[in-house]
Amino acid sequence: MLNQFSRAQLLFGAGGMERLFQARVAVFGIGGVGGYTVEALARSGIGTLDLIDDDRVCLTNLNRQILAVHSTVGQYKVDVARRRILDINPGAVVHTYQTFYTPQTAEQFDFTRYDYVVDAIDTVTGKLELAVQAEKAGVPIISCMGTGNKMDPTAFRVADIYETSMCPLARIMRRELKKRGIKKLKVVYSQEPPMTPEEDMASSCRTHCICPPGTARKCTQRRQVPGSNAFVPAAAGLILAGEVVKDLSGLGDRP
How far apart are CA 221 and CA 157, in angstroms? Predict the structure, then answer.
């Protein structure tokens, strides 16, 4: 019977689509990268999605985040994403967590429930903890390295963390994962050298912060506010989703 996933089934087959419908995927971080990952996973027919992010949509997100439009500014990203997923696929099951993932909040999540984990967060401590917990649970994970201050969406590669180069975040991750005995981690990383952003104080978050009162983590607290654009984070997010879908459907195993 013709349905919204009929075109996908032409590629994945009935068995592959059934595996996607039965899969449960957790996406940690629903921003510039993770938002596009969630979009593609929902449109690919993933049956259950867990969304983890404590942030609200900010006006400065509109240049790159698929969930960010003027009507969603101030709303929690996980709530906006849930509505969008169910509008795409009313049969999906969506669990949301307004949580900033850290080693201190890791106990809230049972990784054995997941068929795949996507790391689209931007803190080293959180990314390391995700890798550790996924390995303990024996669940596949894919992690996104740095996308800020980049201009070339064609520079992304999929590789094991120990085969990466150029990316400063990947260098830190390699060192810290080795300390923790993590011998492999599938990542999406860019081979493009990062640019140095030009910070104009006339329009900087540091001097014109518009975060709602009570916001726990503001850009004003960052060492550097990274520059970004509409196409680099999106490319990374779609690559992440593509790897998850191929792995879960079995398409990646075909000759």
Answer: 31
Q: Which pLDDT tens digit goes with each residue over 83-117?
A: 999 999 999 999 999 999 999 999 999 999 999 99
Q: Which of 95, 18, 11, 12 is nearest to 49 (CA)?
A: 95
Residue 200 has a CB neighbour count (10 Å cut-off) of 8
* CA trace torsion 133, 138, 139, 145 (10° rounding): 50
For 106-162, what is each residue's pLDDT tens digit? 999 999 999 999 999 999 999 999 999 999 999 999 999 999 999 999 999 999 999
The Cα-based distances of 53 to 11, 41, 78, 210 in angstroms read: 32, 17, 6, 19
Q: Which position has the token pair 């609200």?
A: 56
Q: For CA atoms 121, 143, 65, 156, give the dihedral sign.
A: positive
Strands 186-190 and 116-119, by their bridges, are unpaired
